[in-house]
Design goal:
single chain, alpha+beta, 3-stranded antiparallel sheet, 3-stranded mixed sheet
């Protein structure tokens, strides 16, 4: 996503990618410069803003907290809890490599989900 894209485009991408946040990257460095979340979109809609008129720049959180690829899931959980984040970008020196979300943290804590038995 780019800073000047419409918020509607971000909402569309989130829906179709099955994610709750998108990272906005600096096109030259591939480093995160912002994050836009479902909550940002919901707040804009609640404020009766037209998502086709509002730019990502207007809704995103600039300079998002990021975590390095060497950090543990526990480190991510601590950062997410302290910052009240549901999504945390993961970056290396070469740029964004992924995103940890609250579901990832829960999965790491509970281990593999038990296999559900089909009807008996």
């Amino acid at each position: 996503m780019e800073l000047t894209d419409h918020a509607a485009a971000a909402a569309y991408l989130m829906k179709h990618a099955g994610t709750s946040a998108l990272v906005v990257l600096n096109p030259q460095t591939s480093q995160p410069v912002g994050i836009i979340t479902e909550a940002d979109i919901a707040h804009a809609v609640a404020d009766r803003k037209n998502l086709n008129d509002v730019r990502i720049l207007d809704l995103m959180t600039p300079d998002p907290t990021i975590i390095n690829t060497t950090a543990s899931i526990r480190d991510a959980a601590i950062i997410m809890t302290r910052g009240h984040f549901r999504d945390l970008p993961v970056a290396s020196e070469s740029g964004l490599v992924g995103m940890v979300d609250i579901t990832d943290v829960c999965r790491a804590l509970i281990g593999p989900a038990p296999v559900e038995e089909k009807g008996t």
